[in-house]
Design brief:
6-stranded parallel sheet; single chain; 285 residues; 3-stranded antiparallel sheet; Pantoate--beta-alanine Ligase, Chain: A,domain 2; Rossmann fold; alpha/beta
Length: 285
């Protein structure tokens, strides 16, 4: 595996690979790789000839009071995991490579970026879509893969690709969970042992909502209150939002008719965790 640190070098490598008629796949990450990331790598390897994993802690998607400085960075460990997974190139640029001095251009998906996560983390999704488009322009992948844990991000990136006619196929793969049901996340490493135990309440809240729907509940406010109540039963958890929305438009729902997306965001100390579940109305109805 080759580690590439410069934009121009990565762009030239991609050009040469594509000139040979090979398909490039991109796995965008912020590093601190875990089994969730590795599942994305394994998933995209089946679709492409050359796999590029980007490792870049993107400063523009962090707010001034967020955990940018504390975010786990382990380039050596990330490289070892990429090698073990058969990655061809790890693109690990410095911030100055991605954001030259004095940038004035940003990419933002209006409306979708201002609600839910976007309301709590103003400017977050503008940072995400800007850096994702930059990575697409440098790596020029045929396919890029994202995890379903970041559900709103996946919806927004899909809309950006559609609206801007970006020639990249998007692959969205399921959330990978620990044995206790907690979604794998780089931020889990920032939790104390007590907080990590408390995080189990998040999948419990999702399970409670799913069970209610299976039992016939169709009122969104009832489902949301039940999930909210489970979260509030854990004293270490501070709830940011629990919302039931349309999985494509992210519009809030009053009733469940076919499919809905339940989105949860909580704080455990200073660490913010998100999770979600797709709730399906049984077909027999």
């Amino acid at each position: 595996m080759e580690i590439v640190r410069r934009v121009n070098a990565m762009r030239e490598i991609s050009r040469q690979v594509r000139a040979r008629g090979l398909k490039v796949g991109l796995v965008p990450t912020m590093g601190a790789l875990h089994e969730g990331h590795l599942s994305l790598i394994r998933g995209i390897k089946e679709m492409v000839d050359v796999v590029v994993v980007s490792v870049f802690v993107n400063p523009t998607q962090f707010g001034p009071d967020e955990d940018f400085e504390r975010f786990t960075r382990d380039l050596t460990g990330d490289a070892d995991q990429c090698i073990a997974c058969g990655v061809d190139y790890m693109f690990a640029p410095e911030a100055e490579e991605i954001y030259p001095p004095g940038p004035h251009t940003h990419v933002e998906v209006e409306d979708l970026s201002s609600r839910l996560e976007g309301a709590s983390r103003v400017g977050h999704f503008r940072g995400v879509t800007t850096v994702v488009l930059k990575l697409f322009e440098v790596v020029r992948p045929s396919v890029a893969v994202f995890g379903r844990k970041d559900a709103q991000q996946a919806v927004i990136v899909q809309r950006m690709v559609k609206d801007l006619l970006v020639g990249v196929e998007l692959l969205i793969l399921p959330t990978v969970r620990d044995e206790d049901g907690v979604a794998l996340s780089s931020r889990n490493q920032l939790l104390s042992p007590e907080q990590r135990v408390a995080a189990r309440v998040i999948p419990s809240a999702l399970d409670t909502a799913e069970d209610l729907v299976k039992e016939g509940e169709r009122k969104a406010d009832v489902v949301v209150r039940a999930a909210h109540g489970v979260l509030e039963s854990e004293r270490l958890v501070r709830v940011d939002h629990v919302e039931l929305v349309d999985p494509e438009t992210l519009e809030p729902l009053a009733t469940l008719e076919h499919r809905a997306l339940l989105l949860i965001a909580v704080y455990l100390g200073e660490c913010r965790l998100i999770d979600n579940a797709t709730l399906e109305v049984p077909v027999e109805e």
